[in-house]
Amino acid sequence: MFWRKPLPTFTASTHFVVHNPLVRMATDVLSNKALAVRTTSSTSTDSASSQDGASFDIVKTYRSLLSSDPDMTMPVAAIESLIELLRVTPSSTAMETVEVVKTQKALLLDSAPNPLPLLAGADLFEQYLLRSLRGQTVESFDETKRHLLKNRQLFAARAKAARDNIAVIGSKYISDRKIVLAAGGSRVVTKILVHAAASRPDTHFKVIYVMDGSPHCDASVSALREAGLEVETISTSKVAYVLKDQKDINLVLVGSEVVMQNGGIISRMGTSQLALLTRFAGGSQKRFFAAAESHKIVRKTPLWHPQVLRVGVKQKDISKFDNVGVDPVGQEARDWVADRDEVDYTDPDLIDGIVTEQGVKQPSQIWELVDYEK
Prior knowledge:
By secondary structure, this protein is α/β, with parallel strands linked by helices. It has twelve helices and eleven strands. A seven-stranded mixed beta sheet has the order 3-2-1-4-7-10-11, with helices on both faces.
């Protein structure tokens, strides 16, 4: 077994009272006031309003939010979609609202071939809602909803702030006269590297970027070069060769769509392969880091390495030979993850650190950020 260098103890300066900052921000929005169980009926006349939310298209709302803001993450778009649901749904009781949220959440998750990022955000929102219902205040439920709607932009704003904080923390792991191997087209990885170049002018480093055919990779490489970084690109077939040949690589950096509660990550197809090659072809001096905002943590764990299908991801199952050479068409094709968007699972044993806005965590520490209270 290779000896792995211990992580330095860089941490964020902010103290987080609540495990997940998006739950905390919802509390901040309402000035620590909980939702009241006894409620008053709404007088909203919004044309999209419905007692059960049936006339509200949460899938369309979610997709519109994502397309309107390229910096918005999928979990935050899911949260904002559920807040919009509250705006158009005049429930007479808080428990009716909870049922509507659960129903619409299920519709949203069912619409996505990879529902895990949406689940991370939707679970956070539902967790906050259920926790608030246990409060003993007499504040009107409608008034509480108005507070939440008025300050809904805080969710997206603080999620972007989390990415900025990750850039500050992650940049401290960039070494002088070394090479970072990056992959996946992650926005947060790009932000880390750009921040390192801008904030540490005495640190001279280069980047090798693994190109997987995704437009996200092209955008990341362009942003890095615009920041003045020297960037070389390679195809996925050259990864093992480069890791063995290039001795100056000391950090492999990727993003993540979700972080599982056991510290494993689900990210773009090929991430697991890259982690394996880093460990067994790269040698003990190369570390594999993933960067992810804490609102991407989802309370699920694959039973074993390839089982992304068992946690809800709908993509081709190449472990079976049921339809070899047959591509899905029609509705089946729309229900599956597109080839270029397929994901895999990287085991926590292959990950040396996960860069979050709360500091760099060992995979075994991720469970500490998961709030199990319901």
